[in-house]
Design goal:
- This protein is of the alpha/beta class.
- It has a single domain, classed as Flavodoxin domain (Rossmann fold), CATH 3.40.50.360.
- The radius of gyration is 16 Å and the shape is globular.
- The mean pLDDT is 97.
- Bound molecules: flavin mononucleotide.
- The site of flavin mononucleotide has 16 residues, from helix 1.
- Flavin mononucleotide binds next to helix 1.
């Protein structure tokens, strides 16, 4: 029996009908059952301000605890102006502090970028990876996940209707489960 691993999911869009969230939902639906997905809301995490570290706001404390409580991290991000949306970058910054106590440290991660456009949010994907290198989040290299044409993948109820994307996300989920074990339970 594979060990169950809790995966925190961070969606970089607050939009009600977010394509990025739909893609993250689709991954959770087809990934191996050993992965338990918890969507962690980043919308209410207050803006990072270093002055507040002496008495951090409740939203920061709660968010940091939620990140600490998961085994692995799945980042699903759209692209804003060729980079990571500010709301996701803010959440990353909040849980990275106080200095030396980053909640992200050492947790295996994966990135999916999503866009209606053909470039598939490549810029956001790689800007995000830049932060994850610094935060010591060992991030899955392959398969890379760039989901383009996202406005054409779902029906009106938000269900994935594109079979090749489903198959890709299934393989992505399998590879992520293996990656998590490689990082958390390496064999000698
Ligand atoms: C401020 C802003 C900047 C954007 N910049 C980009 C961009 O650089 N690249 C891109 O592919 N799409 C860009 N878009 C379009 C988004 O890909 C599109 O709004 C997408 O639906 C957002 O993801 P979501 O559906 O998960 O909310 C931008 C949208 C906004 C609102």
């Amino acid at each position: 029996m594979p060990v169950t691993r809790k995966v925190g999911v961070f969606v970089g869009s607050l939009r009600k009908d977010s394509f990025t969230r739909k893609v993250a939902n689709a991954v959770a639906a087809v990934a191996p059952s050993s992965l338990q997905f918890e969507f962690i809301d980043i919308g209410l995490v207050g803006h990072y301000n270093q002055d507040l570290e002496s008495s951090p706001p409740e939203t920061w404390i709660g968010f940091r605890q939620k990140v600490r409580a998961v085994d692995a991290l799945l980042f699903a991000t759209p692209e804003y102006n060729r980079s990571v949306p500010g709301v996701l970058k803010n959440a990353i910054d909040v849980a990275s502090r106080p200095y030396g106590k980053s909640a992200w440290n050492g947790k295996p991660g994966a990135v999916i970028s999503v866009s209606p456009g053909a470039l598939s949010a490549f810029g956001a994907n790689h800007h995000l990876r830049q932060s994850l290198v610094f935060l010591n989040v060992p991030t899955m290299q392959q398969p890379e996940a760039y989901i383009g044409g996202a406005d054409k993948l779902f029906d009106a109820s938000g269900n994935l209707t594109n079979e090749s994307t489903r198959e890709f996300l299934r393989k992505f989920g399998e590879a992520f489960a293996a990656w998590i074990e490689l990082i958390l339970a390496p064999t000698a």
